[in-house]
Amino acid sequence: MVNQLPETEVLRKRLAVLKADVASLQVELAHLRTESAPLQAENARLQAENAELRRRLGLNSQNSHKPPSSDGYRRKRIQPALPKGKKPLGGQPGHKGKTLRVVLMEHEDAVLAFALVEGVPFTNNQAERDLRPAKVKQKVSGCFRTDHRAAVYVRLQAVISTCRKQERNVFVTLRNLFAHQPVSLRPGG
Q1: Which residues contact 71 (CB under 8 A, 6 or more apart)?
Q2: pLDDT tens-digit series, residues 2-45
C-alpha cells in the first residue's frame, strides 16, 4: 500500500497537468474558431468569384453577346485535304455563283470595246505602265511633302508619258515648256 500512495500522487499531479493542458487547448480552440469564421466566409466568397470568372472565361461570340473581335486569336480548324480529283466544284455552299459567261454578258460593251472602237487597245497594259512611275516614286520616297508638289509631279509625268506615246523628244518638249514657249501635246500637233 505504501508503494501505491506515491504512484497515486504522481498520477494526480499528472492529471492536474493534463486538465490544465485541456483547458488551454479549449481556450485556443475557441480562439481559432472565432478566427476561422471570417476566413470561411472569405473562402466561400472567393470560391463564388472564382466560379464566376471561370464561367466568363468560357464565354465567346458563339455563346454570349460578345462580338467576334473579342474572341482573340484562335487557330482555325484545318479541314482534311481531299484526294486529288475529289475536290468539289463551285463556290461555298449557299453562295450564288456567277459564271464567267454571265459576267461577260453583263459587261459586254466594256469587254469588247477593243473590237468595237478603233484605237482601243486589247489590254490595259499602257494604263498600268503610266501608273508605274508614280507607284515607284511613292515606294521610294514614301510620300510627297505637299499636295502642290504632288500635282506638279503628276503634270510632268503626264507630259513625259504623252511625249513618249507620240514619239516626241521629251527633253525638247520639257525645255520648251520651262522656257514658256507654246507646246502642243495633241497628236500630230
Answers
A1: 60, 61
A2: 556 678 888 889 999 999 999 999 999 999 999 999 999 999 99
Q: CA 108, CA 97: separation in Å to the nearest integer? A: 19
Name, in order, each residue with C-beta under 8 angstroms of 144's C-beta and a sequence gap of 6 or more.
150, 153
Residues 6+ apart with CB under 8 A from 164: 170
Instruction: Please count the other Cβ atoms lying within 10 Å of the Cβ belonging to residue 173.
Output: 19
Distances (CA, A) of 151 to 5, 143, 148, 158: 123, 12, 5, 11
The answer to pTM > 0.90 is: no
Domain limits of the chain? 6-59, 121-189
Residue type present at position 19: K
Contacts of 173 (CB under 8 A, 6+ apart): 159, 163, 183, 185
Grid coordinates representing 37? Answer: 469564421
Tell whether the model's pLDDT for residue 170 goes beyond 80: yes
Give Cα 62 to chain centroid, integer Å: 18
Convert the pLDDT of each residue in 108-155 to its tens digit.
888 888 888 888 888 878 778 888 888 888 888 877 788 898 888 888
